[in-house]
Design brief:
two-stranded antiparallel sheet; alpha/beta; 7-stranded mixed β-sheet; 283 residues; 2 domains; Rossmann fold
Amino acid sequence: MDFWQFCQKGRLQECGCDQRATWSPPPSILITVSESQVYEAIGVGYSVGRRPEPRWHQEIDSVIGDARRVINIGAGTGSYEPSDRAVIAVEPSELMVSQRPNTAAPVVMAVAENVPIVSGWADLTMTLLSLHHWTDWRTGVSEMRRLAPRRLVLTYDPEILSSFWLLRDYLAEVAASEQKRTPKIEDIADALGGDVEVIVLEVPWDCVDGVLGAHWRRPAAYLDPQVRACCSGLAQADQRGVERAVRELAVDLDTGAWHRRNRELVGMDSFDAGFRLVVSSEI
């Protein structure tokens, strides 16, 4: 019996969800949490600005493989969730949940550090560009290990991202913040345990997922406040510094200084901005 059948029969405890929850069609909210979350402030427009990049989606699907039950922790608006198997999304932000499509997986509203699902329910747990927002990322990873024998983390190498031209030349303070808040790849791999593989996920020049490095070959995009709002590193930064950087970038685009500094990027189809899939298995 799969997740949907459990829920429809009112047997949520058997699929691992809290017995106090009640089922409704997806995206159902099964458990509520009261604490304020970062994306309640910066998550507006994520369903538009952070669309799944098809080439990344294909790579993520390849890693998910034949997993029949998947838990997506820090699920946000549901980007990259598989649609052809049983999925439980875990997300604490009501704003992010409200942007999930009607066909998305049901949602358990909870934080990564305390997921109210029975141990071993899933074949695979995943978290995609969420771990750096967790209050205690090691505890969250421990929950991922408790819930499934396979784990998938999409994250980024903070040192490589910090060398990206936007941070290197215009926003050194954001580069410092990224290095402070984001765990190193090797630390994540060590915490995940088991057999670990790290896969480089380059950013296509026309990437449709508006992550911080998405517009590496389209610098004028960063002049758009809506584009910046969908990058948590920029949205959470001191906006006076961001506005100064935007003014400097605009001048450099007008004078051609940006193109002279970054001429090697123009002929590239993809760019390593530091994004990595960290895959762990104990099977």
